[in-house]
Structures are given as C-alpha cells and as structure tokens.
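User: Thanks for the earlier help. One more: Diguanylate cyclase. Can you show the sequence and predicted structure together?

Assistant: Of course, both are below.
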Amino acid sequence: LSKQKGGNQLTFFSEEMNEEVLKRFEMEGYLRKALKNKQFTLHYQPLVCLESGELFGSEALIRWYHPKIGNISPAQFIPLAEETGLINDIGRWVLNEACKQNKLWHDQGFTHLQISVNVAARQFQQKHFLKVVKDALQQSGLPPKYLILELTESTMLKNKKHSIAVMKELQRMGIQVSIDDFGTGYSSLSYLKDLPIDTLKIDRSFIHNLRMNTSDAAIVKAIITMGKGLQLKVLAEGVETEEQMKVLKKLDCHFAQGYFFQKPLVNQEFEKGLQQQ
Ligand code: C2E
Ligand code: MG
Ligand code: MG
Ligand code: MG
C-alpha cells in the first residue's frame, strides 16, 4: 500500500514539474509578445526630500497586465526577462517611456523633477547600453541631469572594469547613478570610493522595523554617516509609517520613498499630486 502511495506521489510530483516547465514556457511566450501588444505600463512613485517634505522626482516601476493572467509583478517577470534576453528590449522601452514622461512634466512647468529608472544587470552589461541611454535622452529631449539610473551592487561588480568605464561615461554625460537595495549585497564597501555614484538607496528591509535605538537604526545611521563622508546622498526605501519617517529625519537622512508618502501611481494620478503641491 505504501509503495503504491509512493508511486502515486512520484507521478504527482513529476506532473507538478511538467506544470512548472509548461508554465515557464507559456510565460516566456507571453513575455515575448507583451511589448508588441502594449501590455506594459509604468507607474511612478514619488521621491521626497525629508527636510522640506517636497517631492523632487519619481521612480519609474514597470507593470505588466496580461489579459489571461492579470497583473504579473516585476519581481516575477524581470528575472525571466533577464534569462531570455528580452530585458534589453523591455529595458529600452522603460527608459524611453520614462524619459518621455518626465520631459512632459518638465514641459508642464515641473522643471525640477528627476526620474529614476531601474536597470537590470544583463541590460547594463549589453554592448550598446550607452547608446540606448543616449537615444532615450535625445528622443525625449530630457536633459541628462534629470535622469537617475538605479543599479545594484552585483550589477556593477559583474565585469568590474567594463562597468566602471560605463559608469564613468554616464557621469561624464551628466547622468546620476543610484545604488539600489543598498546593504543587501555581500560585496566589500571599497568600490564606493572608486565608482562614480551619487546616491545610496537603503534597502527597505532595514526600514521595515526601524525604531530609535534598534539594531536597524544603528545600521541606517552608519550608512547615512558613511554616505555623508563620501559626499553621497542617501535615500530610504519602503517608508511606511510616520515613526519610520521621524527616525529617518532625526538621523539626517536626505531622501525617502514609500507608501507613507505615496504608492506608485499611474501618470495621471501622479500629475494630480504635482498640481496639488
Ligand atoms: P526596487 O527597485 O527596489 O523598487 C521598490 C519596490 O518597492 C517596488 O516594488 C515598490 O512598489 C515597492 N515599494 C515602494 N514603497 C514601498 C513600501 O512602503 N512598502 C513596501 N512593502 N514596498 C514598497 P515593485 O514595483 O513590485 O518592483 C519590484 C522590483 O522589480 C523593483 O525593486 C526592481 O528591482 C524591479 N523593477 C521594477 N520595475 C523595473 C524596471 O522597469 N526595470 C527593471 N530592470 N527592474 C524593475
Ligand atoms: Mg529601484
Ligand atoms: Mg530599491
Ligand atoms: Mg528594494
């Protein structure tokens, strides 16, 4: 009986595996068509200056709506897009769209707004990445100093020599670079003095339980102090409560982003917020 049971389990297990593989293939097929079928949109989450409370820009976050599946989170499909190489086309679309939208806001009179765009490792490492960025700026007419590119530590440290050259060229062009999810990489900090970086974005895992005199507060404080010493700006991600905001203010953190201020919004909703300010 137990053998029979085991046998059944084995069959069940392999069916599950098939389902997984099938699902991946299916997803890949859907992802291949998503750009052409205009299933991607961008949402914009306000970036806020803690001292003045003013909104100074936004992070562009991709959204995928598939008519059969519904919404699929970027945490799910960006890795698949990287594995398949589709990230280059998707990433180019994001850059073009984000620059175009930010230029539109400039044209409406919000000429101080920055736009922060996530760049995946494979996208950054592609041969023509600089050309893709230049084209997005040229076609939109957005001045380079209003564009921020978000890279992770592992992205920059892959192919280090090449990465440094690309980052230096970005800096020469006047584009800013942020380190996304800062504090979650396992790399040494020595790269911080060699690389042209403008901002550290403290990962939201350090903010989630942030209260005064906790170990998270000690880590956040250390990052802010180090950032100041290196003349970097520091932004806290994932700020959800007033208490977290107050602690960050007390620790002299420059910038913040999170549900406490605003969730990521579609462009029209973001615009309403601008007009109300
Ligand atoms: P990320 O770049 O670290 O973006 C921040 C994520 O935290 C976003 O999730 C945002 O919606 C979420 N978030 C913002 N405030 C809060 C908060 O107060 N609490 C909590 N719990 N979450 C908050 P999202 O939009 O699901 O994106 C997830 C990740 O997917 C991003 O993390 C980024 O790594 C990636 N991603 C998103 N859009 C793009 C894109 O256009 N290109 C690339 N390459 N990656 C993207
Ligand atoms: Mg980001
Ligand atoms: Mg982040
Ligand atoms: Mg993060």
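User: Great, one quick takeaway?

Assistant: The pocket of magnesium ion (ligand 4) is lined by residues 181, 203-204, 237 (CB under 6 Å).
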